[in-house]
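MaoC-like domain-containing protein
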Amino acid sequence: MIYWEDVALDVPRESVQSYLLTADNIKGFASEWDPFPPHVDEAAAARSPIGQLFAAGVHLLSITIRLSHTVKSEETSTIAGRGWDKLRFRQPGVVGDELRVRITHIERQAGSRPERGVLISRFELFNQRAEVLVSFDNNVVMLRREPAPA
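Structure:
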């Protein structure tokens, strides 16, 4: 079991799996969750500043979370998520992009109780050209191995 104190900082780890963006999965997701015309209609997408069909931001976020579960790690003492900070959509995800995730634990903070700590991890979704499409800092509450001194 990995506790808050045990987490190595500044060591990037990548997803074992990847995700290929296709016209079908872009349109399928967007049809249900974000039917903005350039996400569901190739003619509308061609007229957009991107010039081609591109994935909705919420689709890219969903892919990020899914792929994050394929990053190899030991069982942790995570209690709950606290939220995301610094969410940025840096580049569009387009048909043919092969996506992977990189997670880097960047900071530990004291928790609200002595037996807890907060781990901040940078999540990055990137394509086959190593361009980052989405990034955010994920905050989770973890158990400490030893409670903080009072």
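The mean pLDDT is 96.
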